[in-house]
Design a protein that fits this description.
The chain is mainly alpha-helical. It folds into two domains: about 40 residues; about 40 residues, no CATH class. The protein contains four helices and no strands. The radius of gyration is 24 Å and the shape is elongated.
């Protein structure tokens, strides 16, 4: 498979001196800033959901965050395997093995 070449990095002065490139750059910046705002808004929504979960069912906020992360990442089997390994190691290392 052919290796993809990295784009050549240009000096900012070169980009800004070209009206077309300058306009493109401003568009990219505006679009990325809108994305950042959407992310910030969604993070606030998640915070609100977590607060309601803590109030209504009394879940530990850190545990809630971990469960959301596992659900989002779709790595529940990997996480479960890691937890099982940790449980085994803790039992052996600290003499709590049954």
């Amino acid at each position: 498979m052919a290796k993809k070449e990295k784009p050549q990095v240009r000096e900012i002065e070169d980009i800004l001196s070209n009206p077309s490139d300058k306009a493109k750059l401003q568009g990219f910046i505006d679009e990325a800033a809108r994305c950042k705002q959407l992310i910030a808004d969604q993070n606030e929504s998640i915070k609100g959901i977590r607060e309601v979960a803590v109030e209504e069912i009394g879940i530990n906020p850190k545990l809630f965050n971990s469960l959301v992360k596992v659900s989002f990442d779709g790595s529940s089997m990997e996480t479960k395997a890691t937890i099982n390994s940790l449980d085994t190691a803790i039992a052996i290392l600290f003499g709590t093995e049954e």
